[in-house]
Amino acid sequence: MTLTRGARITGAVLCAALALIVGGWIGRDLTTVDAPPDLWRYWTGNGSAGAPAPLTTSLEDLLLIVVYVNVAVAALRSAVAATALVAAAVITLALRLPGLWVLSTSWMGLRATDELRTRALYCAFAALGLGLGLIITAVAGRRTPGGHDPYLRHEAYAAHELTPTRPGQGVSMLAFLLLGAAAGVLAAWEVYTATEIGGSRYLDRFTGGDTVLLPLLGTPPGWLAAVIVVLALVAAFGALFHAVFSRPLGLVVAVFLLGTGGRGVDIAVRNEFVSRLGDLPVRDQLLVLSWLFELAAGVVLLMALARRGESDAEAWRGRRPAYDYPQGGGPPPPMSPPPGW
């Protein structure tokens, strides 16, 4: 399945619009803090970073920009980027949906002005609309490889040669193991958290609440963990069966594993958890090891899934066009060749 040129441009524009929305909020926070490192410290849980006004973004917003920029580039460069557009849409819808009710709660009014809340709510609606637009573009912009135009056949053939979409055998197994293990680690910590706090406080981790310290654009931590677990499992089993969507979806999950693992490692290094790992309680030891695993898994998955796939390229090379493409500058063969052509 390939995308028309118009669909590819549309998808890139939609991703650029999503990136600009998030970038605008990050830019607003950068002008609020004294220095850019202060914003990073806020993202990694170091209080309010001494900002004179409330900060609105989280590390996940920066990770979303990384996803949008890469998907926009992929859409412009490849005719087989439909699954990448869908992956960007899925993560956008999943992370922006809670904003519809979180931003309307009364307790959020104690953390942000009405003007900021209104702007954030409009941006949440815009992001959801753009996410749906990505799905519509990926579905409606499909083009059957080859069609009836020899030049389009040649473009589709070149697209498959340049950007295969299925992971190879070894990469599939590696992605299945790492994504499945990461999903298991995240799910295990959520189960542990549920047993520790329980009741309505744990429910706030999914719905948002006054017991959860959440920035204006933040996603409730339990909801975020559940989204990553589900996407990681879908990508893991997709990779096991060499599904087309496994590479872009796995790359999106890898970006978030890298980001959250890096944030955790930063916390561990800043508080000297790593240097005195043996002296920490068992829970804290497991937490630091989980962060290290998420960071390593994100790096390995990015390196593995970003590689050129094997099966699609081999399968496509095994197909031969119905005719040879002209090597010179002459016109293409007619749609219905006469006898003896």
From TrEMBL:
Keyword match Protease: no
Keyword Repeat: no
Sorted UniProt keywords: Membrane, Transmembrane, Transmembrane helix
Superkingdom of origin: Bacteria
Region (Disordered): 319-341
Transmembrane parts of this sequence: 7-27, 85-107, 119-140, 171-192, 222-241, 248-265, 285-306
Compositionally biased intervals (Pro residues): 329-341
Protein name: Uncharacterized protein
Organism: Streptomyces maoxianensis
